[in-house]
Amino acid sequence: MNLVDHKERDTKKVERMFSRISSRYDLLNHMLSLGLDFRWRKEIAREAGRINCQRILDVCTGTGDMAIELSKFWRGKVYIDAIDFSRELIEIGKKKVEKTNFSDKINFGKANAEMLPYQNEQFDAVTVAFGLRNIQDKLKALKEFYRVTRPNGRFICLEFSQPVNPLFGKLYFFYLMKILPYISRLAGSDLEAYRYLGRTIKEFLSPHELVDLIRSAGWENVTYKVMTGGIVAIHKGEKR
Ligand SMILES: C[S@@+](CC[C@H](N)C(=O)[O-])C[C@H]1O[C@@H](n2cnc3c(N)ncnc32)[C@H](O)[C@@H]1O
Questions:
Q1: Which of 41, 59, 113, 193 is 20 to 30 Å apart from 11, CA to CA?
Q2: 56, 118 in Cβ contact below 8 A?
Q3: Cα 111–12–145 angle (5° rounding)?
Q4: Does ligand 1 lie within 6 Å of residue 129's CB atom?
Q5: β-pair partners for 186
Q6: What is the CB neighbour count within 10 angstroms for residue 102?
Q7: Taking the CA atoms of the chain, what radius of gyration do you get in angstroms?
Q8: In what helix (H) or strand (E) does residue 158 lie, and over which residues does it extend?
């Protein structure tokens, strides 16, 4: 099997890993987060709703849940470009979107977040949910998000973080590293992929470090808030 080193995050290997788990991806996502992932994505949609949006780019869209949540929030009044480098996940996303009222408003595409196929200043907002952690060159991607955002536009990022309470943190990481991979295998998915997930979460930047990284890509007024005891954090930045 093609194992992914969580530090190296080789782009091709990460792409193949997500494609491999595509058939069980949605089910496990909702199951393992106890359905909280819907609430977290709703919060991102609300944040995007603070500015007047006509066109949003959802990067690392996977099966399109973030794009669908944005469409629901805007009642189909915005156009969303939903991109990911896994063709398999995109195909699942397309089928899901066909069953909604937003099929003409969400446009899926295969693209690498580090090299966006768009001209400058095309989008009112760029969103990324649980994607940044997986990107090999995060600074390069954050600069790309900045480039394609119009002046006064926003960047909004939802990402796993580290629990604030140390005791809760210990239990959470025990679950993440020792239990979750086996649950995923029982559910017919890939043990190694979920081990990778745990490692990337444990070693991801702290919210403060992520603020610094986002700033270094050019974003201004970068702020964050944590949710669910610090399991996830939402970072926001503005383009002046
Ligand atoms: C954990 S999933 C998140 C999917 C979705 N946003 C969600 O909320 O469920 C991470 C996604 O990032 C994608 N991805 C990782 N690195 C990428 C890159 N450099 N360019 C495009 N997509 C990437 C993967 O294919 C995967 O679909």
A1: 41
A2: no
A3: 35
A4: yes
A5: none
A6: 21
A7: 17
A8: strand 149-160
Q: Give the model confidence (pLDDT) of 216-230 as tens digits.
A: 999 999 999 999 999
Return the best residue to mutate from 85, 96, 128 for the ligand 1 pocket (most ligand atoms within 8 A of CB).
Answer: 85
pLDDT in tens, 136-190: 999 999 999 999 999 999 999 999 999 999 999 999 999 989 998 888 888 888 8
- Measured distance CA(210)–CA(97) in Å, rounded: 32
Task: Tell me the two tokens of residue 114.
Answer: 């580090």
Length of the chain: 240
Determine the Cα–Cα distance for residues 184 and 39; give it in Å rounded to an integer: 22
Closest C-alpha residue for ligand 1 atom 1: 130
User: For a pocket test of ligand 1, which of 84, 128, 139, 176 has the largest count of ligand atoms closer than 8 A to its C-beta?
Assistant: 84
Give the residue carrying structure tokens 């444990």: 202
Contacts of 6 (CB under 8 A, 6+ apart): 196, 199, 200, 203
Choose the weakest-confidence range: 5-9, 90-94, 131-135, 231-235: 5-9
Domain borders along the chain are 28-164+205-238
For 160, the token pair is 């796993």
pTM of structure: 0.94
Residue 48 to residue 231: CA distance in whole angstroms: 21
